Amino acid sequence: MKRIYIIALVFIFAACGKGGNNSAPAPGKATLVAPLKDLTCNTGVILSATESSVAFSWNPAENTESYDLTIKNLLTQKDIVQNTPTPNATVTLLRNTPYSWSVTAKSSKSDTKTDSEVWKFYNAGAGITTYAPFPAELLTPTFGQVLPSGTTKINLTWKGSAVDNNITGYIVYFGPNSNPDVFRQRVTDSFVNDVTVSANTTYYWRIVTVDANNNISDSGTGNFFVK
């Protein structure tokens, strides 16, 4: 009987130890500060004709030991990830290039990671007086989404933004080919509704954003499948 009691205690202590990380408070959400959202970053230290160092900062998050700063080049879609124990970091980036950035709060006491909002900015370049729009963010259908059988109509939605707030329209490319043809031109809304689709077909789409200075940006190609 005594042996059974000891074994039961071992199981209890083991179970308590296993659940320790899950019972700790989750890290809070970091609030982004700089570079500012949807604006040109002119405060970086110029290192060369092509690069500058950019200072990132955010408000500290509760119950957090370290942060992952993730910076995405919106032209190449490549990420730079830098871990830091402080709510700031300085990173070397390409000039005259659009980026997005976000912060993930982490703690060794919790299995939960908490993501901040995602902000975009344009890292200024030499002699640039106007800037191309940010590449549009494809919203729905999501990348790789599988739509149920019986679907015959879908809505394409996206989000566009520009430093100069001067977007004049969008060119929508859509079709069953991996390099889709122009589907709509001079679209001034950020959606196209009631697009006809067929079963057992993969569709591809992308958005080209045009501004008042005839600068353009390309979202890159998304795809989805209709059962």
From TrEMBL:
It comes from the Bacteria. It comes from Mucilaginibacter glaciei. This is Fibronectin type-III domain-containing protein. Gene3D superfamilies: Immunoglobulins.
